[in-house]
């Protein structure tokens, strides 16, 4: 196994704090103020290094792993961590340029594009497998909840509206004859869902990896399903999206970003236990509680996961039919592993 060099991953500075303050103001007030431009500095050999603004959130993320492994060394780009950003705000802030890249689910990107946001998917992300699902569904063992129909009149925890936890679940529940209007959905961060479920604040927790692993070992819970059970994993691909202006100004940095996280994704697929150990240390969690992650090979984007969510959003009246096409959502032009660009 390659030696792992520990980098200073969390640079807290007045500049970073200012970026977060601006992001919060944008989210609450809707003001369209200019974003802080990407910083450039000279690296080894005088090569210009473009820093990209990125959230410093708890979770399993290729950017953190690549940084830890030293995979950004020798490239034209580096992460500039700007502090924790709530999951629902990541895609809006990529759209405004307050952060340059973000990893969130496809329907959020589609909705942002439909609203005119300057954003595009530049690489694929997680791959749902039967033994490495994107999210798991837990109820208390004493709750009496056994099937989807039992959820009517109950409260379900999701990490945000407009993403996989909402749309994949509602699609499945409807297929099982559930009246989803009788279910209350409550936003609870993934790392808080286990506690909220145990305390009775919700009746069903939909938890994403890596936090789903700890819930799976809680003897008070029973796991009902995973997203692999619901749709074979079609809705579980969480891609990486880039701000359009950043990509136009810094195409080499975007190419290096995509190439680096693709290299990291393939490393994770080949070294799942080592990857879990890095994330466990980052999150200060027992490695036994970290669920495995798997990634799309080479992070090349394919169209079925995108079309899947376009169809769902159209069926639910979230976007006008035909307003967003698959090709509007993604490009493989920055991925050196793609046989062709789109």
From TrEMBL:
Which InterPro entries does the entry link to? SsuA/THI5
Entry keywords, A to Z? Signal
Q: Which residues form the SsuA/THI5-like domain?
A: 57-275
Q: Where in the cell is it found?
A: Periplasm
Which stretch is the leader sequence? Answer: 1-18
Q: What do the Gene Ontology cellular component annotations say?
A: periplasmic space
Query: By its UniProt entry, which Gene3D superfamilies does this protein fall under?
Result: Periplasmic binding protein-like II
Question: Family, per the entry?
Answer: Belongs to the bacterial solute-binding protein SsuA/TauA family.
Q: What is this protein called?
A: ABC-type nitrate/sulfonate/bicarbonate transport system, periplasmic component
Which organism is this entry from? Paenibacillus pasadenensis
Taxonomic lineage of the native organism: Bacteria, Bacillati, Bacillota, Bacilli, Bacillales
